[in-house]
Design brief:
The complex is a heterodimer of chains A (154) and B (574). With 154 residues, chain A is α+β, with helices and mostly antiparallel strands. Chain A contains seven helices and four strands, in the order H-H-H-H-E-H-H-E-E-E-H. Chain A has a four-stranded mixed beta sheet, with helices on one face. In chain A, helix 1 runs antiparallel to helix 2. Chain A is elongated and about 50 Å long. Chain B has 574 residues and is α/β, with parallel strands linked by helices. Chain B folds into three domains: 75 residues, Ubiquitin-like (UB roll); 116 residues, Alpha-Beta Plaits (2-Layer Sandwich); 352 residues, Rossmann fold. Chain B starts with a strand and ends in an 11-residue tail after the last helix. The chains are: A alpha+beta (154), B alpha/beta (574).
Chain lengths: 154, 574
C-alpha cells in the first residue's frame, strides 16, 4: 500500500471531518507511517479544507510530531530535573560524539534516532533512557556504549 | 452607547465594545503598537500597547481589552514607559544592527519606536537568528533575521487575502514566520500581492528591487528607455514630496521621468481603455453564446495567480484580455516600435506600478514578443519615489508635461482602473456605449444586493440586463463563489482586485499607517473622473485611432495576437 493510500485509509476512519480532528489524524498518520511528510500535510489539508501552512505550523509547535522518520532503534532520553542532575547530559554528549546524533535527528543509516524528553516518571532510577519502549535505568556513557553495541550487533 | 472612562486623570468618551486602544486613538492619545492593525483581530503579540488599569495587578494590552464603564487607565505612567522600553530592548536583542543598510531605513516602525523611547545602547544581547534571506520570489523578499514575530503578515494573509502563506513555525525561542515545509516563497502559495509588505513593521518583508536594472538601462546609450505609469500612482505619491495628500501629480511625474532620462513616457490608463474596449467585446460575445459566464476580470495578477492555484476550473471564466500593463507592453513592442522605426530589442520597457504582483506578471512566459518580455522591468511606487529623489528632481519646482504620442489621450475611466469598482465601471460604460451608442450615466445604474462584502450593480442595454459585481480583498471571493455555484444569482462580470480598496492600496504604494490616505487617493481618482469630459473608453479618439491604424477591429485577428493571453493551472503547495 502506498503512503497516499494509507493516509486516505486513515482519513476514512474519521467520519466527521473538521479541524477539531486534525491532531488525532496527524497522530494516527505518524504512528502508522513513522513520521509526517509533505504528502500527508497536503492530503490532510485538502480533506479538512485547511491551508497547509496552518497544519505545518501546528505540527512544528508540538514536540510529538516529527518530520524526520524514526530510526530502527528510537532512543528516548530523559532530561528531566532528576535525570539531568544525575548526568543525563553526558549520555547526550556520548550520542552526539559517537553517533552524530542530536535531539530530533536520525542517523544516516537509519539505525538510531534520538528524542530528548522531559520526564519518564522514573526519577529515582535516573538517568533513564528507553529504546523502542524498553527501559534502561542508571545509564552512564559506559553502560550506553554496551547497549548501543548490543543493538548494532543484532 | 457611550461609556465614560478616565485616562491619565481626564475623562474621555468611548463607544461600547471599543478596545481601550481604539478609544485612546479616537481621543488623540497615541499608544505605540507593533502588531495591531485596524479592522483585524487583535493578537496582543508585541505587548507594546500595555497600559496600567487601576485595580489590576498586571499591565494590560490595550489592543485586546474592551473598555468598561468607569475604567481608570494610565497610558504613560513611569511603570508603563519602563515596560515598553524594556520590551523594545528585548526585541532589539537579536535584531541586526544594520539600520543604515536596511531597505526599510526611515520607514521602520521599530526604528521609530527605539528613537521615541530613547534607546541608546544595547542592553541585552542574544545570538542573532540564522535563517537565510529568501530571494526566490520575483515580488517579495523575506529577511527572517529582521522579523520581530508580530504576526501582522500572517493575519493579513489569512484574514484579508485568505491565502495563508505564512504561519508561525516551531515554538518558543525557536519560533519564526515561515511557509509550509519552510519552503522558499516561490514554491509557496504566495500570490505576491504585497499586503504583508505594507503591514510589516520592520525590514523583514520588502519588495524585490528592480532599481539597479533601470539605472543601468538609463545610462546605456544603446537602449531606448520607455516608461509607462499606472493610473493610481499619480494620486498616491504627493505626500512623499511634501504636497497635499490627495493632489494629482500626474503631469509633474511625466516631466520628472523625462528628466530622469526616459525617452518616452506613456500613461497606462490608455492601455486600460483599450483593455476595456476588448473586454466589452469579449463580454458581449460571451453573453451572446452563454459560455463562461460570469466573466472574471484579469487585470489583477495576484488574483489571476490565485485562480490558477485554487480554482483552475474557473480559468476559462477569466477574461482572456491581458492586464493594462501587458497591453501597453505589447503595444510598445509591436506598434510603437514599428511606428517609430525602432528595433524592438533596443527598447527597454519599464512600468511603474503600485503592485508587487506586477513584477511577477511581467516575467510570465505568456507575456513575450519574439522571446522578449513585453515589459522588461517593473518598479513599485516606492521605487519611483526613490528614483525621483535620487536624481535630485524637485517635483514642486518643475513644469507639468503631457505623455508622449501615440499613447497620450486617455478617458477618465482609464484612470478608474486604479480603484476597486473602477474597471467594472469602465467596462459597463463601454458595453452600454457599444450596444446603445449612448453614454451610461448614474441614473441608469441600479445597485443590487447579493451578499455582504460584495458590491453589485446592474443596468439595461438593448433589452439585455447586465449585472456586475465588485470584489476586493480576496477573502470576499469565498463568499461569492458558493452563490454562483448554486445559480441563484446571475452575474455577468465580476471584477476582482486582491488589495482592499484596489490598486490605490496596492502592495507597492508608499507606506502609510492610516486608512485615511487610501480614502483620499480613492477620492482623488473619483474627482478626476467627475471633472473630465471623455468618460467612456469607446469615445476616446486615440483608442479609435489605434484600432484604425493598427489593431483592426475589436476581438479581431491582431487583437487576439497582441492583446489576448491564456492562463493555466499552477501547482504549488497550497
Amino acid at each position: 500500500m502506498s503512503k497516499a493510500e494509507k493516509i486516505e485509509e486513515i482519513l476514512e476512519r474519521y467520519s466527521y471531518l473538521d479541524s477539531k480532528s486534525l491532531i488525532p489524524i496527524l497522530q494516527d498518520i505518524q504512528s502508522e507511517l513513522g513520521s509526517l511528510n509533505e504528502e500527508a500535510i497536503v492530503l490532510v489539508g485538502q480533506r479538512l479544507n485547511l491551508p497547509t501552512s496552518k497544519i505545518y505550523g501546528l505540527a512544528t509547535f508540538y514536540n510529538q510530531f516529527k518530520f524526520e522518520p524514526k530510526g530502527k532503534n528510537h532512543i528516548c532520553l530523559c532530561n528531566g530535573t532528576s535525570c539531568r542532575l544525575k548526568g543525563a547530559k553526558w549520555n547526550m554528549v556520548y550520542l552526539e560524539e559517537n553517533l552524530k546524533l542530536k535531539n530530533g535527528q536520525t542517523t544516516r543509516n537509519g539505525q538510531f534516532s534520538l528524542e530528548v524528553v522531559t520526564c519518564m516518571g522514573a526519577c529515582d532510577h535516573g538517568p533513564v533512557i528507553s529504546i523502542n519502549e524498553e527501559y534502561y535505568r542508571e545509564v552512564d556513557p559506559e553502560k550506553l556504549k554496551h547497549i548501543i553495541n548490543d543493538l548494532t550487533q543484532e | 452607547m457611550n461609556i465614560t472612562i478616565e485616562v491619565n486623570n481626564r475623562t474621555i468618551q468611548a463607544h461600547k465594545g471599543d478596545t481601550i486602544l481604539e478609544a485612546l486613538n479616537r481621543n488623540g492619545i497615541r499608544v505605540p503598537t507593533l502588531c495591531n492593525m485596524t479592522n483585524l483581530t487583535p493578537s496582543g503579540a508585541c505587548r507594546l500597547c500595555v497600559v496600567e488599569v487601576e485595580g489590576r495587578d498586571t499591565l494590560v494590552t490595550s489592543c485586546s481589552h474592551i473598555v468598561e464603564n468607569g475604567m481608570r487607565v494610565m497610558t504613560h505612567s513611569p511603570r508603563v514607559v519602563r515596560a515598553r522600553k524594556t520590551l523594545v530592548e528585548l526585541l532589539l536583542a537579536n535584531h541586526p544592527d544594520d539600520c543604515l543598510y536596511c531597505e526599510r531605513n526611515g520607514f521602520c516602525e521599530l526604528q521609530d519606536l527605539a528613537a521615541e523611547l530613547h534607546i541608546r545602547e544595547r542592553k541585552v544581547l542574544r545570538k542573532s537568528f540564522t535563517q537565510k534571506l529568501d530571494l526566490s520570489s520575483p515580488s517579495i523578499v523575506r529577511d527572517p533575521a529582521k522579523c520581530i514575530l508580530c504576526g501582522r503578515c500572517i493575519r493579513v494573509c489569512d484574514e484579508v487575502q485568505s491565502v495563508s502563506t505564512f504561519e508561525f513555525v516551531n515554538r518558543g525561542c525557536n519560533m519564526y514566520v515561515g511557509t509550509t515545509m519552510s519552503r522558499d516563497l516561490n514554491f509557496s502559495s504566495c500570490i505576491g500581492c504585497g499586503q504583508c509588505v505594507l503591514v510589516c513593521p520592520t525590514g523583514a518583508l520588502h519588495e524585490r528591487q528592480n532599481f539597479a536594472e533601470v539605472m543601468d538601462a538609463l545610462s546605456n546609450p544603446d537602449l531606448i528607455p520607455v516608461v509607462q505609469i499606472a493610473p493610481s500612482i499619480s494620486v498616491s505619491v504627493a505626500t512623499e514630496f511634501g504636497l497635499k495628500a490627495s493632489k494629482d501629480v500626474n503631469k509633474l511625474l511625466y516631466n520628472a521621468l523625462r528628466k530622469i532620462g526616459f525617452k518616452y513616457v506613456f500613461d497606462t490608463a490608455v492601455a486600460a481603455d483599450i483593455a476595456a474596449v476588448e473586454m466589452a467585446a469579449e463580454l458581449i460575445a460571451r453573453k451572446g453564446n452563454g459560455n463562461n459566464l460570469p466573466m472574471f476580470s484579469s487585470c489583477c495578477p495576484a488574483w489571476v495567480k490565485f485562480v490558477e492555484q485554487w480554482y483552475p476550473d474557473y480559468i476559462p471564466a477569466l477574461s482572456a484580455v491581458k492586464s493594462p500593463q501587458q497591453v501597453m507592453g505589447s503595444l510598445i513592442r509591436n506598434y510603437f516600435a514599428a511606428e517609430n522605426e525602432i528595433n524592438l530589442s533596443k527598447i527597454f520597457s519599464v512600468s511603474v506600478m503600485p503592485c508587487l504582483a506586477k513584477k511577477f506578471e511581467a516575467q510570465r512566459e505568456e507575456m513575450t514578443t519574439r522571446g522578449l518580455s513585453d515589459v522588461d522591468t517593473v518598479l513599485s511606487t516606492r521605487e519611483l519615489v526613490r528614483l525621483i529623489k535620487l536624481y535630485g528632481i524637485d517635483i514642486q519646482g518643475i513644469e507639468p508635461q503631457h505623455p508622449d504620442k501615440p499613447f497620450n489621450i486617455r478617458s477618465s475611466s482609464g484612470k478608474l482602473f486604479g480603484i476597486s469598482g473602477g474597471s467594472a465601471e469602465a467596462l459597463a460604460r463601454v458595453v452600454y456605449h457599444k450596444l446603445t451608442s449612448k453614454e451610461l450615466n448614474d441614473s441608469k445604474i441600479t445597485e443590487v444586493k447579493i451578499i455582504s462584502g460584495v458590491k453589485a450593480f446592474s443596468f439595461n442595454a438593448a433589452g439585455q440586463t447586465f449585472t456586475f459585481a465588485v470584489v476586493n480583498g480576496l477573502k470576499n471571493i469565498h463568499s461569492i463563489l458558493p452563490v454562483l455555484m448554486e445559480g441563484d444569482v446571475k452575474l455577468d462580470y465580476i471584477e476582482v482586485m486582491a488589495c482592499p480598496g484596489g490598486c490605490v492600496n496596492g502592495g507597492g504604494q508608499p507606506y502609510v499607517h492610516e486608512d485615511k490616505y487610501v480614502k483620499l487617493r480613492t477620492k482623488a481618482i473619483i474627482e478626476i473622473d467627475e471633472a473630465e469630459g471623455i468618460k467612456c473608453a469607446a469615445r476616446n479618439p486615440l483608442v479609435k485611432a489605434i484600432y484604425d491604424d493598427f489593431l483592426g477591429e475589436t476581438g479581431g485577428e491582431k487583437s487576439k495576437k497582441f492583446l489576448y493571453t491564456r492562463y493555466s493551472k499552477r501547482e504549488v503547495l497550497l
